[in-house]
Design goal:
Helices cover about 25% and strands about 30% of the residues. By secondary structure, it is an alpha/beta fold. The chain binds cytidine-5'-triphosphate and calcium ion (CA). Cytidine-5'-triphosphate binds near residues 98, 102 and 151.
């Protein structure tokens, strides 16, 4: 292979990647959101395409990131929309990687008109309800036998123990665990992680570009598909 060329080890495969962060609307102008930039998910989509996969990228509020060349991009704003888009794309997928930050809760009610403040009146408390857990759902009810499912988790404190518990709870095959802290901020170009496998494996990924972490994820996925 020429220098810079990549082994097309995902040729003939369909992979689904979710990226970005969901926004749960309160009224026509306001939402509950998070700081996920979408960069790690986009790096996963680009690297999978470079390795020959057909890629569906389910993008949640990633304005500013260019659509990766040769990738099908589906927009999904809320957790509910992301769930619909991921379930649909996963139906014939060999692998699904949930890199999106999905809101755990959404406002119980949506106000069709803008919420207004009134003189001398305290605000109403915000009532929230749980969103469905997409990763747990697709892991428990695989669209295809042998489909490889990957989650992401940002943790503090006992990062590995928390990651192991989460991997078991979700029922996915791989969980990429990031430590949240100092230089590991949202929106950065770099990442450091450990990829935990349901088979007990542990793959450390040193601090470096998000493409490097993405390639390690695809290496582990390709091993499991083989
Ligand atoms: N996830 C999901 N659906 C949700 C919440 C999370 O599919 N409603 C996925 C994320 O895309 C990610 C993984 O689950 O791949 C882990 O997300 P995380 O927020 O760390 O997990 P939670 O179970 O929500 O745990 P926590 O209480 O720590 O937020
Ligand atoms: Ca969560």
């Amino acid at each position: 292979l020429a220098r810079g060329a990549v082994e097309p080890d995902l040729a003939g495969r369909h992979v689904v990647v979710s990226a970005g962060g969901t926004r749960e609307p309160l009224d026509p102008v306001r939402f509950l959101g998070n700081r996920s930039s979408g960069k790690q998910g986009y790096a996963l989509a680009r690297t999978a395409a470079a390795r020959g996969a057909r890629v569906t990228l389910v993008a949640a509020n990633t304005t500013g990131l260019p659509d990766p060349a040769g990738v099908d991009v589906v927009q999904a704003g809320t957790a509910g929309q992301l769930r619909e888009a991921v379930l649909k794309a996963a139906a014939d997928a060999d692998a699904v990687v949930m890199a999106a930050a999905v809101a755990d809760f959404r406002p119980a009610a949506y106000a069709a008109g803008k919420i207004k403040k009134r003189d001398g009146q305290e605000p109403e408390p915000l009532v929230l309800v749980r969103n469905p857990d997409i990763l747990a759902e697709i892991s428990a009810d695989r669209a295809r036998p042998g489909q490889v499912i990957v989650g992401f988790a940002a943790e503090t404190d006992d990062v590995l123990a928390n990651g192991r518990r989460k991997l078991e709870r979700k029922g996915c095959d791989l969980l990429v665990v990031n430590e949240v802290g100092e230089r590991k901020t949202f929106g950065s170009e770099q990442n450091e992680a450990v990829v935990l496998g349901a088979d007990g494996s542990e793959t450390p990924v040193p601090y470096g570009p998000k493409e490097a972490l993405a390639d390690t994820v695809w290496d582990l996925v390709a091993q499991r598909l083989a």
